[in-house]
Amino acid sequence: MELVLFQLLNGFVWAWVVALMALGLNLVYGVLRIINVAHGAFYMLGAVAGWVILEQLQGVSDMYILNFALALLGAPLFVGLLGLLLEWTVLRPIEGQPVITIIATFALLLILQQGVQLLLPGTQQVAPPVAGGVEIFRLRYPVYRWVLAGLSGLFITFLWLLLQKTRFGLWSRAVRQDPELALAVGIPVPWIFGLTFGLGVALAAVAGVLTAPIVPVEASMGMDILLDSFIVVIVGGLGSLQGAVIAALILQLAKGVFTIWTAPVAAHALALLLMGLLLLIRPQGLLGTDAD
Amino acid sequence: MLTCTRRDFFRTAGAGLLAFALGPRASAQPKEIVIGHQAPLTGAVAQFGPWHNRAIRAVIDRINAAGGISSLPLVLVTEDEASNPEIGQDKFRKLVLQEGADFVIGSVWSATNLATAPLARELKTVYFPQGIATEITGEAGNRYIFKSYHTVRGAVNAGARWTVENLGKRWTIVASQLEFAQSQAADWRAQLEALGAEIVDVITIPFRPADFLPYVSRVNVDRTEVLYQAFTALDTIRFLQAARDLGLHERLKILGLIEGIDVLDTNSPAFEGTYYITSYPRRASQVPEELQELDPVYRRSLDIDEEGRSPQGTVVPIADLFGSWQALSLIRKGIEQSGWQSKADNSAFIQALEGRNWSAGLEFPQGDGFLRPEDHLAFHGHYIEHVEKGQLNVLLRISRDASLYSPLIDYTQQEL
């Protein structure tokens, strides 16, 4: 029974990270109609930038929690600005050509990955801002993972507020529904494109910094989670933000539950099988509209 | 104006190519002894390659300063095998065929060693693999392979009795999928059964998993007394952190081989209270008395301080480097005793090393040792070390005889 609870809990925590990734991917797809293959590289870049910031701050301040908070804000800011720049220079000129866009983002993935490999070979380790475990209902679980789930949830809430309650959100939703009409009513569509791409990859960077203390930080770290995020986006329904969160929960909880009976590698395969079945039942995704 | 017909061009180019192809082999009279190093300078075990290279260089410099071996100077040629068996094979071929290496010191990556062993026989070149998978001195090896330092089974045998008697009788083994870790799992299983201990569970974990918790949570804490872990450096930290987060440190004794942590700083809560079977103390203060004169010489020539760190402050795999150091010392002994002049004398060289004994000295600062004739495997002393207040302390010194096991093969029956 304890093992069941434990695996469920662990699946629940990972679900929030995957949801954060998937939301970024989905946001970019919803507004720009771009399938961003480089999303995993931005996740990796977030983790690496977070590590660099922590290394730089090491001599300056002894408050590790404060340093970590700075890394959690600084790394996504850096990655977001880079995303803004890349949308402008790389993706803007090939707007509206889906195949070339996929190739271009794949190229970005390779460039970012190999660039990091070149500048920072090997694997880095980031210490968690809070160490140790706590016992709740006779179940011991690392404190930092609670923090991780909480912060991911917090960022997801921020995103929701941003999209629902601000002018940027309103404009962004308008562009998502009909870019031409949005342009006609005076919305600065090119800016919305750029900012949305920057925001999307910044979310990946947030996920990167948050998971850095529990995974090895290295150039190829974004690949596994990228696959999970794509699966979650498709099963949740392309463009549907709530769908992505629900699909992330289903995928990760299934992984956790299957881990109780089989080895984690087989559990992953079984969880993917379940996602495939869901897609057979609802080809448009859990909350997707058939327009996509 | 210079004129050059097509025929002239091909004739000159052909002659040039032929000379290049025959180059290393054409010089029958040796002017030098070429030592090849198949080094993991990049990839999974990149932390080890440069250090082994440095150790080899240090010994070569010392030998050359004293006039070389049989008045022939040593020359080092290094190739990066990228912790990859296929690249390792290519680089071994390159070292032997193109660079004319007379002897090759191998990677610490066991998969590369196992892939290279057949080539050593094919190219009739003596190979000193530095990985510790037990298989390399068994069916996977051959008479051209010399293991100048222990294998997994040697270390397991050395530590088994004491750990079962003092740490506990009910064991859970948690091991990476990698060769050297699976080698540990298999060897412990056999040893524990022989000593009457119980194996509660064996948990295999892929190399660099995204998350350790789902695996570590499967450890049966109530039934287990000793948790044995077998990983490479980075995975070891992540495993130990996960174990600590789940509170296993307080409830079980955690044990491993030094190879899993020999580039790691133990001054972190994740290491506190863990045990290791090692082949040399990391800290100078822990070195046994009879080796205390040699220890500073060894450390100084590799630029390692009394706490086992480099001048840059990184932890050096001080114990691991004896493998390369002793390989060169053995090459010297073999050449001097057999009168080796070129690879044509390799059989005399091999026979000279089979069954070789040595005692502690500048060439063997780790201590007395013995190279068994049947499987070409070195046996030497071991230690049990324990992390207290962030530092490794020696609890016990184990004699080389405790690590002896019956040979898996008899190379002396193989033709040369």
UniProtKB/TrEMBL annotation, chain A:
Q: Which GO terms describe its molecular function?
A: transmembrane transporter activity
Q: Give the subcellular location.
A: Cell membrane
Its BP terms in the Gene Ontology are: amino acid transport
Keyword tags: Amino-acid transport, Cell membrane, Membrane, Transmembrane, Transmembrane helix, Transport
The positions making up the signal sequence are none
Kindly state one GO CC term assigned in the UniProt record. plasma membrane
**Bilayer-spanning residue ranges:** 12-32, 41-58, 64-86, 98-120, 143-163, 183-210, 230-251, 258-281
Tell me what topology the record assigns in the membrane. Answer: Multi-pass membrane protein
Q: Where is it chiefly localized?
A: membrane
Reading the lineage from the top rank, the first entry is Bacteria
Looking up InterPro entries in the UniProt record yields:
ABC_transp_permease (IPR001851), BCAA_transport_permease (IPR052157)
Instruction: Give the similarity note.
Output: Belongs to the binding-protein-dependent transport system permease family. LivHM subfamily.
Question: What protein am I looking at?
Answer: ABC transporter permease
TrEMBL record, chain B:
Domain Leucine-binding protein, by residue range, is: 32-390
Cleavable signal peptide: none
The Swiss-Prot or TrEMBL record describes its family as follows:
Belongs to the leucine-binding protein family.
Query: Which keywords describe this protein according to UniProt?
Result: Signal
Q: Which PROSITE patterns match?
A: TAT
Protein name per UniProt:
Leucine-binding protein domain-containing protein
Q: Which Gene3D superfamilies match?
A: 3.40.50.2300
